[in-house]
């Protein structure tokens, strides 16, 4: 799927880094292959020979135990190696992994790392789309990533679903794959609460914008107001004002803002401010997961090829999975009894458990089989370039 996602891109498209937090498509392709080479081939292949010894540094993201890293802000300066050479790297490493698979498949650690590597690549498949969207949004030509037409949609009214107070269980059960930050399963007490039946729409968020929500500090956290002021932010990242209202930059190019689709590319500061303005709040991750366990596992993911959230269908609790990652009010922190794995792979999640908030549910850019109701995504408060949106909560 990674190569299919980069097929619409030119070599020039693939090399540019639009912001420090994003990466060029070429780097994403190389880094995911680096993961397999570094953590699997280097461990089990005998004799091991690196495809290119420079890649150990160039495509190491944040694994300090592996060694030196190329600085993240300068990934876009890597005009060499060429895209063609990176694609050859992927092909050769894939071949070597397949040969190795037949020899060591019976080893549980090999299976575990291979599965981790595949899920790691799925995370970067979503990043390929969101990083490229950010890049194209900065181009004055507003190029489309693909020619998928987004049609107008109809909306459904918002309602509230009640959940009683009590002890609830959240976290991974230990069956099938999950990241270590999803465990262990444990009990949490929740007060009675209500969740909005669907995600917040563009129309609802536009009222907040047009009534001066971005100009009124009473709705904003102190750091959020400082961020909004420094950035000069007056509306969501990809909205563009025009005489008749708003346009929105999408992976299909610049389109009229659809009032019934979910508002996305909102940071935590924006989500929290909107919730306060609306007389509500963001749910905790325990409230969200408790509710998600009551609905069918279905949603709008990347497999549709649209890469844009859809308007909500009818139902008492919809869009819990897919469409948009949902900000929660929960800080990203370890669950009771959490222990990171030893060695370099232990750096995957645990060391980021500070100054970030949890998002739940997956998005329209998440691979279909990647997400779970226990899945804990996380980003800093200012991050807006992901497909992140809002589901309101309030007390029962």
Topology:
Blueprint: H1 2-6, H2 11-15, H3 25-44, H4 55-58, H5 83-104, H6 108-137, E1 160-163, E2 166-170, E3 186-190, E4 193-196, H7 202-210, H8 222-231, E5 239-242, E6 245-250, E7 253-256, H9 268-277, H10 285-292, E8 325-331, E9 357-360, E10 377-379, E11 388-389, E12 393-395
Parallel strand pairs: 8-11
Antiparallel strand pairs: 1-4, 2-3, 4-12, 5-6, 6-7, 8-9, 9-10
Helix pairs in contact: 3-5, 3-6
Structurally, the number of domains stands at: 2
| CA distance, first residue to last residue | 43 Å
Mean pLDDT over the residues: 96
Output the radius of gyration: 21 Å
Helix content: 25-40%
Helix-strand makeup class: alpha+beta
CATH superfamily of the largest domain: paralog of FGE (formylglycine-generating enzyme)
Name the features.
31% helix, paralog of FGE (formylglycine-generating enzyme), four-stranded mixed beta sheet, 396 residues, globular
What does this structure look like?
This protein is α+β, with helices and mostly antiparallel strands. The chain has 2 domains: 2-137; 160-395, paralog of FGE (formylglycine-generating enzyme) (Alpha-Beta Complex). It has helices at 2-6, 11-15, 25-44, 55-58, 83-104, 108-137, 202-210, 222-231, 268-277, 285-292, and strands at residues 160-163, 166-170, 186-190, 193-196, 239-242, 245-250, 253-256, 325-331, 357-360, 377-379, 388-389, 393-395. It is globular. The N and C termini lie far apart (43 Å). The mean pLDDT is 96.
Give a concise summary.
The chain is an alpha+beta fold.
């Amino acid at each position: 799927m990674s190569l299919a996602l980069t097929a619409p891109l030119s070599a020039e498209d693939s090399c540019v880094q639009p912001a420090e937090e994003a990466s060029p498509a070429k780097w994403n392709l190389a880094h995911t292959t680096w993961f397999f080479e570094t953590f699997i081939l280097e461990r089990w292949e005998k004799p091991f020979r690196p495809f290119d010894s420079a890649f150990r540094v160039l495509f190491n993201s944040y694994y300090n135990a592996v060694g030196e890293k190329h600085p993240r802000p300068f990934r876009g300066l890597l005009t060499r190696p060429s895209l063609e050479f990176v694609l050859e790297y992927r092909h050769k490493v894939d071949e070597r992994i397949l040969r190795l698979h037949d020899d060591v498949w019976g080893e549980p650690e090999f299976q575990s790392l291979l599965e981790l590597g595949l899920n790691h690549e799925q995370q970067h498949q979503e990043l390929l789309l969101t990083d490229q969207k950010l890049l194209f949004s900065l181009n004055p030509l507003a190029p489309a990533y693909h020619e998928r037409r987004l049609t107008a949609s109809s909306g459904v009214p918002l309602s509230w679903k009640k959940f009683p107070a009590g002890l609830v269980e959240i976290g991974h059960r230990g069956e099938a794959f999950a990241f270590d930050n999803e465990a262990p399963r444990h009990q949490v007490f929740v007060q009675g609460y209500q969740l909005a039946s669907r995600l917040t729409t563009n129309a609802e968020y536009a009222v907040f914008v047009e009534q001066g929500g971005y100009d009124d500090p009473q709705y904003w956290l102190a750091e959020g107001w400082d961020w909004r002021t420094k950035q000069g932010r007056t509306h969501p990242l990809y909205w563009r004002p025009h005489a008749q209202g708003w346009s929105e930059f999408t992976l299909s190019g610049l389109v009229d803002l659809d009032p019934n689709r979910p508002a996305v590319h909102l940071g935590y500061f924006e989500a929290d401010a909107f919730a306060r303005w609306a007389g509500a709040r963001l749910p905790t991750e325990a409230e969200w997961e408790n509710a998600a366990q009551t609905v069918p596992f279905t949603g709008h993911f990347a497999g549709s090829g649209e890469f844009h959230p859809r308007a909500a269908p009818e139902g008492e609790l919809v869009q819990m999975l897919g469409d948009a990652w949902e900000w929660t009010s929960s800080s990203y922190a370890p669950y009771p009894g959490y222990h990171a794995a030893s060695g370099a792979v232990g750096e995957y999640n645990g060391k980021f458990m500070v100054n970030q908030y949890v998002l739940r549910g997956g998005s329209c850019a998440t691979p279909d089989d990647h997400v779970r109701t226990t899945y804990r995504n996380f980003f800093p408060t200012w991050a807006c370039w992901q497909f992140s949106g809002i589901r309101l909560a309030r007390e029962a």
